[in-house]
Every structure is written in structure tokens, then in C-alpha cells.
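Dear colleague,

Following up on Tuesday's group meeting, I ran the structure prediction for the two-component complex that the binding team flagged. I've pasted the input sequences exactly as they went in, so you can double-check that nothing got truncated or mislabelled along the way. The C-alpha cells for the whole assembly follow below. Feel free to forward this to whoever is handling the docking comparison.

Inputs:
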Amino acid sequence: MDKLSGAQSELREMDVLAAGISVVHRLHPLCKLLVTVTYIFIVVSFHKYDLSGLIVMVLYPVLMFQAAEIPVRVFFYKLRVVLPLVCAVGLANPFLDRMPLTQIGNLVITGGVVSMLTLMLKGCLALMASFLLVATTPIDMLCGALRKLHVPKVLTALLLLTYRYVGVIMGEASAMSQAYSLRAPGQKGIHISAWGSFLGQLLLRSMDRAQELYSSMELRGFQGEFFYSDIPACRVSSVMFVLVSCSFFACARVVNIAWLLGNLVVR
Amino acid sequence: MIEFQNVSFSYDKKTPVVQDLDLVIKKGETVGLIGANGAGKSTILKLMLGLLYGEGTIIVDGLSVTKANLPMIRKKTGYVLQDSDNQMFMPTVYEDMMFGLRNYGMSREAAEARVDAVLEQLGLQDLKYRHNHKISGGEKRMAAIATVLVMQPEVILMDEPSTALDPFNRRTVIRTIQVLPQTKVIASHDLDMILETCDRVVLLSHGKVVADGDCGMILRDRALLEQNRMELPLCMQMQGV
């Protein structure tokens, strides 16, 4: 399987993951969306030196991965390209912020190191929460949840169609790349001289296919608004999930739970 | 039921794909559109659905094919696309079949019952919850046909319905077409299938009607078919017609 087919297959695997039947999958999509947004908002709001306070927030993704029956390695594997970029965000901090914060033996821990770790952790946690949302909620239900929040239908349809069309573009690119490689044996990748026509053809073919897909939708009554009514009714369990999760996040933001627990053990 | 009055169409405004087409298809008729590649078969189907607009008038069940009438015409008409990959856009076969029904406001329960009935009719129960990207080309073709049949349209347009099907599935599609009471227009190169399913055949060449008449008569005419870059159906070749 070439790289493009692999990427296409990985994208489709997200649909398979989202179609699971775990406790998390059964939660109301709007509730999951609210909790995820709250979680990311609270994670981002932690002070740059508050690494110990932030560590407690790891509990949410850890528990959710368990409850959703999704192995954590799936997250690391699927986001293997993005994670290093997220981690690279704070790499300059140790050089810019040299204020000593604490000392372990002879090792001085500067503010820059702590803020770098905090930034990395914030990025990873935000990604984990977003991944969990997408991996446990089918895209149409997610768009349905957004519609319930009165997000304009143009935006939700755009999101849904973009998600679908990414697969179309990747499928076309994969077919073209296979056709090219079959007639260019021994050549690695696509030669730079062919890139212009390759991209042009890819655009034209993708537009043609997108047009056909859209026609197919129109022929079956699509008039700009997807029918999202398959969203299950909001049950008590979903409401409880929102209340418990958000209370925990708020509590973790206000009180440094890790510091409190540490004090209990040390003293 | 369907009437083409002096219809012409060209993609590039130079080379006509359909020329001065006059054609009447009666209610309940099964018409086969045959012709060489580029004869205009798929274009004619798309013109009926308002996916393309040409000159002249097309009337479907009393409604002229205009932008204003499209929702009503499309509700009455089901179209099996040439490429099933372009027809199946939802994650699973089930969701794809539900898509149209729910768009037209059918309740979930009623829609699901209809989906089950069509899947059973085509022997596709196993495909119901399968992901579209994980089924074979032939299965996808059958599923695409199912997404159209589930809408119970008054007119069914099929573009190469037997492409990519194995003999068993091809036979299932033929049997299904034979028992469907709707008006059907089938564009295909599979002349054996046309012979088994259609009452009438319209032979096209360069966008013009070359012959229009009884299926058995036209498909038996070796000279006519060969003049138009076609050949006798296999079953007739074996009979030594």
C-alpha cells in the first residue's frame, strides 16, 4: 500500500472508530462537544509555570480512552506527524526564560524548562481531547451537535463535506500516484517535472468527482441541510457526564490537586 | 411520462453530444439506451434529471425540466450513476440508503423498514452495516442500486447497472429490473441484459436516434448494430443469428 492509500485508509479508520458502541460512544454528541471545549479551554488557561496543577488534567483523557475502549497507542500513531510539531512549540523557552524556579540536587530547574513542559503538555492534552471527540463521535453527529448550538448550516455542511471530500481527493491522488509509479519503475516518488500536471489533474479530477457526489446527494433530496435527527436523545448519563467532568475541570483549575496530594504524602 | 422535444446538447458548444432528440417514453415502459462510447447515453439520462441543460424541452411526468421543477422531478426519479464510488458518500450502506428517505422527511422507523425490505429483495442483508470503503466494487454496485430502489421512484434511470457485477449479482439485478413496475431507462453496453429486461431499445449514434423499436428486432439486426460499432448480444451470437 502506498503512502496515500495508507493515509486514506487511516482517515477511514476514524469512521470505524467513531462507529463503536462503548459507553463514551453512546454519550450525547452535544455533551461530548461541550465537555471537550470546556476541557481544552481550561487546559489552555493554566499558568505557564503551573505544571503540577496541569498534570491532574491527564486523568480525563486517560479515563476516556479506557471507557471508549480505544488504545492510547492509536492516538500516538495517528497523530505522529502533528505531535512533534506541538511539542516543538516551547523549545525556545529554556533559552529565553532562565529564571530559576526550583532545584533538584545540583540541577537548577528554570522557568523556561517548566513553561516548555507545560506548553507541551497543554498541546498534547488538547490534541488528545479533540482526538477522543472525533474518535467517539461520527462526523455527521458532530455536525448535528453544532447545528443544535445554532452554528450556521453553511458551516456545518462545509465541515461535513470537507471531511468527505478529503477522502475523495486522497483517493484520486492515490490512484494517480499508483498509475504513475506503474509506468515509472525504479523511480522514488513523483519526479518534480511531473508535479505541475499531476497537481492540475488532481484538482480537475477531484472537482469532477466532488461534482458527481454532490449531484448524487441532490438527486436524493439534499438541499443544503443534512438530516441530523439520528442524534440520540440526551439521557441522564450524558448530563451527568457533563456535570461531573466540568466540575472536576473547574476544581482542578482552582485547586492544585497534585500539590495537595503531594503534601499529604510528604508530611 | 418522459418526452424529449427537439433536445440538443453540447459540452463545448462545438461538438453536439445530443442532436435534435425527439423521444417519448410511456409510463411503465422499460427502454434500453444503447450505442457506442460517446453516443450520448449518459448525457440523455443527465438531461432528464436537470444535471445538464440543453436546448429544447424535456418533460418528465408532466413537469418540464426547469430549475423550479427539479425537486419534484428528482423526487420521482431515481438515478444509478455509472460510477458507484460517486454514489456512495455516507460511511455505511445503511446510512447511504437512509440518506434520501430522511431528506424527504420519512420517519426513522418507516425508513428502516423500507431499507430492510430492499436489502432483502436484493439479498444484501449482510451489507447493511458494512462500511462503503470496505466492500468490493460489485457489492458497492449492488448497494448503489439499493440506494435508488429504496426511494421507490416512479422512474428509474440506470447508467451501466451491470458493470463490475459477478454473474450471480448480475442475474439478481436483471431479475429485480424485470419485476419492478416503474418506468425504467437503462443505458448499457450489456446487450444481453438489455434483451432480458427491456421492451424497447433506442440505438444512438453521435447523439442521434438511429433506431427505435422492439428490443428483439433491433438487437437481432447484425448489420444495424455493426454499422454503429456494436455487435449482436452474446446469446444471439451463440444461437447463430
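The first helix of chain B runs from residue 41 to 48.

Cheers,
M.
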